[in-house]
């Protein structure tokens, strides 16, 4: 169990204990109050029996019953599930008030049934409260439903992307480095066997083995760059994009800076998204120049890639850009594309995230 | 010649030392981290330092940082940086640490033992050696830049080989032309890149630098 989990569970345990204590104490207090009230009631009855006159103790009993009734009602209301509690309190209090009015009406001689008006008023307010409560929770429910839909989709996408990525890495390693190492092992084995009788052929085999090893290294480097380019780990997003820009056929200006490092998965996703955008610039735009602008306004990591090319890029036609959008969505990030025919093309990518302090 | 090696992977450190010793280069120390490197540089005063880019404590680019620091402390101290991958960005940073006596190669190049030992000697002698991959990348990038646009494809090839630190004779051999033809190309490059008349070696370095730093400001 992590420290955070431990703290949370301790907190929950304390809250439960508090609730249990409250549950034990409340009925006791209520019982004591009832006994005292009953005692006072009986005392009043005795006094009345001694003095005579109109039967006034009923008013004392009524007065004593009111606080008890409120306490019982509120206690009941507070047992309602969270989210409905205020409505329950409201309805219980309204019921008690209505009851009090009816009792007063009875005690004052039960003439015209005037309590109907205040009770009607209380009911209207209560119904209003219930209606507002319902529409609010319906709105929240709708928002939650939408959120669950988005999360389900992006989670599926993330898993798809990950699975495809692993498959690609496996294939690259299998067809590349692994195959070459097999051939190296074969050459060396053969060389060992014929070492004594045919040194000339051994020399050739060794040369071939060395060259296969070098190609295997090249293959491995390519695979590694596809997983996590070393320069990204070394220099962060800004440095890695600068390094990337240096190797492109189209001149790219890199501007702005980020005052720290985003979380590794976000950094990686944004880096590869930027790679894809710049690859599109080089391949499709016919641009003379491109610019990447990095910034971090108000907790949002923002990368804007613009070029002076011919425009006309769209999410519908470019699977690359759609992939970028999907990659970013996993982090609740967004990608906005503006690419009118004739250009310029501007891709704006935003992911809200926290930054860690820059590594020194 | 006296060399020190800084490489954290024992297997590669021993391999490098073995290759250098086999070619009569005295490996006076082989260490595994930048702190020990600084210490042996002070103690041994070697002619050349060979560094791996990735070393403890963070295993990112300590070797590069160490190389630049070493050269800031002792200007012109020959360093050869080896790496499993090369970045133009890093090549530029190294070149900015001062002209001459600097090298940046993929580790793969060590497999060509002759070429590698030659590179060590050239760096120790104050030459500049850049990995062909870096140079190729730069050529692709430079195609649209001003000075480079004026060079013919052949001149660009010659400049690329110069950037790799090759001598005129080596360039002639590689391109299968006469030494005279190479001289002619090189002069033409100097003129097109607008380099001042000076000692030939210095102009060669300048040509490479010009080429590297064209838009790095």
Overview of the molecule:
The complex is a heterodimer of chains A (360) and B (217). Chain A is α+β, with helices and mostly antiparallel strands and 360 residues long. Chain A has helices at residues 3-51, 57-78, 85-107, 116-194, 199-227, 230-246, 264-285, 319-329, and strands spanning 252-255, 290-295, 300-307, 334-338, 345-352. In chain A, strand 2 and strand 3 (300-307) form a beta hairpin. The longest helix of chain A has 79 residues, at 116-194. Chain A is elongated. In chain B, helix 6 packs antiparallel against helix 8 (153-163), helix 8 (153-163) packs across helix 11 and helix 9 packs across helix 10. Chain B has eleven helices and six strands. The mean pLDDT of chain B is 85. Chain B is globular and about 45 Å long. By secondary structure, chain B is an alpha/beta fold. Helix content of chain B is 55%, strand content 13%.
Short description:
Chain A has 360 residues and is of the alpha+beta class. Chain A has eight helices and five strands; from the N terminus they run H-H-H-H-H-H-E-H-E-E-H-E-E. In chain A, strands 1-2-3-5-4 form a five-stranded mixed beta sheet, with helices on one face.
Q: State the share of residues found in helices of chain A, binned by percent.
A: over 70%
User: How many β strands of chain B by DSSP?
Assistant: 6
Structural class of chain B: alpha/beta
H and E order of chain A? HHHHHHEHEEHEE
Strand order of the largest sheet of chain B: 2-1-3-4-5-6
Multimer state? heterodimer
Q: pLDDT average of chain A, as an integer?
A: 88
Number of H- or I-type helical stretches of chain B: 11
Give the biggest sheet of chain B: 6 strands, parallel
Biggest pleated sheet of chain A = 5 strands, mixed
Strands of the largest sheet of chain A, in order across it? 1-2-3-5-4
What's the N-to-C terminus distance of chain B? 37 Å
């Amino acid at each position: 169990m992590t420290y955070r989990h431990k703290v949370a569970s301790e907190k929950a345990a304390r809250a439960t204990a508090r609730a249990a204590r409250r549950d034990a104490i409340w009925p006791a207090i209520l019982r004591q109050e009832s006994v005292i009230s009953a005692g006072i009631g009986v005392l009043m009855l005795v006094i009345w029996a001694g003095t005579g006159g109109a039967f006034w103790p009923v008013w004392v009993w009524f007065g004593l019953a009111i606080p008890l009734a409120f306490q019982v009602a509120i206690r009941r209301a507070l047992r309602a599930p969270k989210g409905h509690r205020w409505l329950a309190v409201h309805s219980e209090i309204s019921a008690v008030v209505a009851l009090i009015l009816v009792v007063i009406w009875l005690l004052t001689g039960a003439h015209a049934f005037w309590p109907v008006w205040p009770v009607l008023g209380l009911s209207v307010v209560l119904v209003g409260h219930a209606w507002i409560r319902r529409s609010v929770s319906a709105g929240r429910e709708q928002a939650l439903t939408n959120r669950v839909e988005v999360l389900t989709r992006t989670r599926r996408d993330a898993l798809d992307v990950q699975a495809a990525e692993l498959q690609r890495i496996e294939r690259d390693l299998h067809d590349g480095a692994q195959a070459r190492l097999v051939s190296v092992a074969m050459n060396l084995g053969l060389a060992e066997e014929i070492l004594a009788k045919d040194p000339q052929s051994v020399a050739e085999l060794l040369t071939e083995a060395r060259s296969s090893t070098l190609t295997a290294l090249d293959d491995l480097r390519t695979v590694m760059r596809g997983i996590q380019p070393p320069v990204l780990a070394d220099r962060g997003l800004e440095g890695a994009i600068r390094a990337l820009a240096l190797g492109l056929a189209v001149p790219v200006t890199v501007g702005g800076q980020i005052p720290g490092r985003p979380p590794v998965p976000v950094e990686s996703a944004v880096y590869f998204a930027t790679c894809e955008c710049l690859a599109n610039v080089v391949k499709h735009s016919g641009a003379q120049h491109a610019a990447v602008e990095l910034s971090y306004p108000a907790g949002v990591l923002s990368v804007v890639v613009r070029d002076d090319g011919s425009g006309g890029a769209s999410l519908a036609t470019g699977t690359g850009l759609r992939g970028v959008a999907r990659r970013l969505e996993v982090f609740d990030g967004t990608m906005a594309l503006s690419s009118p025919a004739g250009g310029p093309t501007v891709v704006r990518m935003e992911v809200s995230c926290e930054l860690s302090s820059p590594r020194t | 010649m006296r060399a020190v090696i800084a490489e954290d992977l024992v297997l590669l450190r021993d391999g490098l030392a073995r290759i250098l010793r086999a070619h009569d280069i005295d490996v006076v120390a082989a260490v595994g981290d930048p702190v020990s490197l600084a210490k042996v540089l002070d103690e041994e005063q070697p002619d050349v330092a060979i560094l791996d880019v990735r070393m403890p404590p963070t295993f990112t680019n300590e070797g590069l940082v160490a190389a630049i620091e070493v050269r800031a402390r002792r200007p012109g101290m020959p360093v050869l940086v080896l790496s499993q991958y090369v970045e133009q960005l890093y090549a530029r940073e190294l070149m900015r640490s001062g002209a001459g006596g600097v090298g940046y190669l993929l580790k793969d190049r060590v497999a060509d033992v002759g070429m590698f030992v030659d590179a060590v000697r050239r760096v120790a002698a104050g030459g500049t050696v850049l990995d062909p991959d870096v140079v190729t990348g730069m050529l692709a990038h430079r195609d649209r830049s001003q000075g480079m646009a004026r060079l013919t494809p052949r001149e660009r090839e010659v400049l690329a080989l110069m950037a790799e630190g090759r001598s005129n004779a080596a360039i002639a051999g590689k391109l299968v032309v006469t030494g005279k033809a190479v001289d002619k190309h090189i002069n033409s490059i100097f003129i097109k890149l607008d380099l001042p008349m000076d000692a030939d070696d210095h102009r060669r370095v300048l040509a490479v630098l010009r080429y590297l730093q064209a838009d790095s400001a």
